[in-house]
Design goal:
about 475 residues, 10 strands, Rossmann fold, 19 helices, single chain, about 10% strand, alpha/beta, Serine Threonine Protein Phosphatase 5, Tetratricopeptide repeat
Length: about 475
């Protein structure tokens, strides 16, 4: 947000400074009212329109913000901040080509903007121009070499391209980002880098980020144990019971327990770097997690094995920015649900269940009984049901990772440019040998994804 030195009127300049202060204090409602007071008296200052638009972006009103930036550019076509901010608004609105054009325009006006280069790189990746995104990240890094967000952004492009050696190294920058989520306390104990011998030592491995990340990368925990260590895995509380299946000697605890004594600590997603994982040696032996036999028996009695039972999960957490574009509306499963001999069983919990009230005519999805995976231990019933069904169809959620970790036949519906872990242009996941990847041909193209699944089902089950 620019300062108000363009505003000659002293009264308006004071209001501008106050509005900027409110914005910096995240008092966005007050800031917006003040900027609008200024504009009610004078509309000729581009900086005020840009500032008002920035507040609207903070309030998640990008369409209105876009109008502000357009007005600022009408007043001053060489406004770097307006061009950059217009790119941000367009990016929020999913208009990636137009966002790219405006970031490029901002860079031409002022090439010394690391944020413009970085955002341009992210948009290039979203447009499928991942190699080109690396050049923009390099330009941003040259201007701001210590910015963790930019370094992390480049890591995601590298990992998506399967360039693991450099990608894992840059992925370590996540630990310097304010939004990095580590389960449990930030410890001051020595960090294990893979160099220190572990024989006879106790190491605390800390889960981080989301449930899916923990399920995917807990495969490394037994590898650490094989180095002679006593291993304690500190993980999300609702995964503790599930993760105890990693091995009898691996202790799994929740963050609400006292942190066990240990000699070293390491974040879970640093282990691929330590073990020098590349695309040829991903530890992919499955299953590395297992369902509990008594729960399997319980659910097996409730499924009709004369039908092709398919567990389905279609939506992640809408509150998470990472879910954008990943979830699919359940109506896309309509033709599969109506195939003879097919029975869809909902594995969905919480968000997304409201879609079951408005299914297309003739479409049925079975809802499991009350109490399904309720309480502290998540995924215990889900894992058991997965062992009893023929197939799991899922969006990019923790459910998909669980199915893969159990070694169950899984079809994953992926957005056009997916999360880095699914790589590009592959039909099989190197992380999960029993998983088949169905990719959008273009952004938002779920129709093609589910038509391909329908054809595959006809081949497999002659339905």
């Amino acid at each position: 947000m620019r300062n108000g030195d363009q505003i000659s009127n002293s009264k308006l300049a004071l209001l501008y400074d106050k509005a900027v202060h409110c914005y910096q204090q995240e008092r966005f409602g007050e800031a917006l009212a003040l900027f609008e007071t200024i504009l009610a008296e004078c509309t000729i200052f581009p900086a005020v329109h840009v500032s008002r638009g920035s507040v609207l972006l903070a309030l998640d009103r990008p369409a209105e913000a876009l109008e502000c930036f357009d007005e600022a550019l009408r007043l001053d076509q060489n406004s770097t901040s307006a061009a950059y901010s217009k790119g941000v608004a367009l990016q929020r609105l999913g208009q990636m080509n137009d966002a790219l054009e405006n970031y490029t325009r901002a860079i031409l006006l002022d090439p010394n903007q690391p944020a413009a280069h970085s955002n341009r790189a992210l948009v290039l990746r979203e447009l499928g121009l991942t190699h080109e995104s690396l050049d923009s990240y390099d330009s941003a890094i040259a201007l701001a070499p210590h910015c963790a967000d930019i370094q992390y952004g480049k890591a995601l492009s590298l990992l998506l391209l399967g360039q693991f050696e450099e990608g894992w190294a840059k992925y370590e920058w996540r630990k310097k980002m304010s939004r990095w989520q580590l389960w449990g306390p930030h410890l001051k104990s020595p960090l294990w880098t893979g160099i220190q011998p572990l024989e006879g030592k106790t190491i605390l491995i800390q889960a981080e980020q989301g449930l899916g990340d923990t399920i995917q990368f807990c495969r490394y925990v037994p590898l650490v144990e094989k180095l002679g260590a006593k291993v304690v895995l500190l993980a999300q509380g609702n995964l503790v019971r599930l993760l105890r299946g990693l091995g009898p000697q691996i202790r799994v605890v929740a963050p609400d327990n006292d942190t066990p004594a240990h000699d070293y600590q390491v974040p879970l997603l640093s282990l691929p770097l330590i073990f020098k994982t590349d695309s040829r040696d991903i530890p992919c032996a499955v299953p590395y997690l297992r369902a509990e036999p008594d729960r399997m028996n319980y659910w097996r009695q409730r499924l009709d094995d004369r039908l092709v039972n398919i567990g389905v999960c279609w939506q992640g957490d809408k509150r998470s920015a990472s879910d954008t574009g990943r979830s699919f509306p359940i109506r896309y499963l309509e033709r599969i649900a109506q195939m003879s001999g097919i029975r869809l069983i909902s594995l969905q919990k919480n968000e997304g269940l409201e879609q079951l009230r408005n299914l297309p005519p003739g479409m049925h999805v079975e809802i499991l009984e009350d109490g399904f995976d309720e309480g502290y231990d998540a995924f215990i019933d889900t894992a058991a049901i997965m062992e009893c069904v023929h197939l799991i169809i899922a969006s990019d959620t923790a459910i998909a990772h669980l199915a893969g970790a159990l070694g169950r036949p899984t079809w994953l519906a992926l957005r056009h440019i997916p999360n880095w872990r699914w790589l590009l242009n592959q039909m099989r996941s190197p992380w999960y040998p029993t998983m088949h990847l169905f990719r959008q041909n273009s952004p938002g193209d779920w129709q093609t994804v589910f038509a391909a699944m329908e054809n595959e089902l006809k081949k497999l089950y002659c339905v």
